[in-house]
Amino acid sequence: MQNWSGDPGQQYFADGLTDERTADLARLGKLHVIAPASTMPYQDTHKPLPQIARELNVDAVVTGTVEREGKRVRVRTALVRASTDEVLWAQSYDRDLGDALGLEGEVSQAIAREVGVKLTPETQQRLERKPTTSPEARDAYLRARYFFDKDDAEGATKCLQYLQEMGMSLTQVSPICSMRRW
Fold first, then answer.
1. Residue 24 exposed, middle or buried by CB count within 10 Å (0-12, 13-18, 19+)
2. Region 150-168: what's the mean pLDDT?
3. Among candidates 54, 81, 76, 56, which has minimal Cα distance to 65?
4. What are the two backbone dihedrals, phi and then psi, of residue 47, each rounded to the nearest 5 degrees?
5. Of 149, 107, 157, which Cα lies nearest the Cα of 15?
6. For residue 43, how far is the Cα from the chain centroid?
């Protein structure tokens, strides 16, 4: 998702929504989903969508933008047939930030329905669950993930800061940090 907030400091939020939506769609098991690490280089490119799709070897692309301002968030997303640039489905979601916690699952459910994936009750329930009821904890989690992926000393420091904001103790954070060579 592209960050349309006008604030580069909100990129963590756009990247976090992208990661969550990607993970949700990949867990459906019936779709060929490309990892965010492979798609991120295309985020600010001026290449035509059919060319990007050929390079990624996909039939369709999920595009999106996110605008976060104050306590409001607007997400626009579309499913596009890559070969023709035809929009197969598009939707806009405008929410209070606290209501945005379940937004990732809602978007994933809509995309799954559009491509004909039949959701089991268990899968639908999993997509509808909110990871937390606290917008502050969710925000700290998204920030920690964003900085964890930076793989540098500054990122490590900020990642630790946000994990501790989530209420994690240093003993809980240590195993997470050991996964990186900071």
1. buried
2. 77
3. 76
4. -70, 145
5. 149
6. 13
Structure tokens that stand for 129 in this block: 């669950």
- In this structure, the strands spanning 72-81 and 2-3 are unpaired
Q: Which of 160, 158, 153 is nearest to 177 (CA)?
A: 160
What are the backbone angles phi and psi of residue 108, rounded to the nearest 5°?
Answer: -60, -40
Locus of tokens 């004909």:
116
Place of tokens 């979601």: 93
Residue 173 has pLDDT above 70, yes or no: no
What does each C-alpha distance from 66 to 18, 79, 114, 119, 121 come to in angstroms? 10, 15, 21, 26, 29
What is the pLDDT, as a whole number, of residue 182? 44
Which is higher by pLDDT, 144 or 168? 144
**Measured distance CA(46)–CA(111) in Å, rounded:** 25
